Please model this.
Amino acid sequence: MQLIRNLLVVLLLITTDLAASPISWEEIRSGHMDSRRQPAALEFYLQRIERIKLQGRNQEEVIYSEVFDLADKKVKKCLADGCSLSPRLVINSYPYWLDEGIYHLLVFVSEDNWDEAYLKGVAGAVVSEHLGDLKEKLGLEWYIHVNVLEKRSVLHLGHAHVFIRGNDREKVAVELKKRIPFSNPDLQPW
Model:
């Protein structure tokens, strides 16, 4: 277990070293984004994953609990039998290293469905539902990204990354926090 964690840290740090700068909007939109976190944020994220494992839990269990806000009994049922829940839009409490004014959100679905077109369609609809009225008002634009298998730390709950920016980054941040919860309710990184 520790060996796997150490290899993951090395792999992710190498990726960070190769691209030692924040992810720009142009890189996000290129379709060839190299997802990365700052080294301290990456270590914090990996420590959280390790704590979850030490508790005998997995990422999916935590997401059902924290993102979908399910009680333990319902979480166990969903893990065992699957469940059909409405998609959830959250602000990523463990965001990638992004240029100032770009915000990292996630849209989770309650099944192990990684079809990119499906996830992008669901994410687009959910983001439009929650933030569509701000598109013109704050000049919001977003880009939806689905990680390749090698970059996924949550393996059995489909999700899309949503990157958002607007004309006034402070107003965008205020609106996002008013409307959308963080993925970890106890951690609000901005």
About this structure: The longest strand covers residues 159-165.
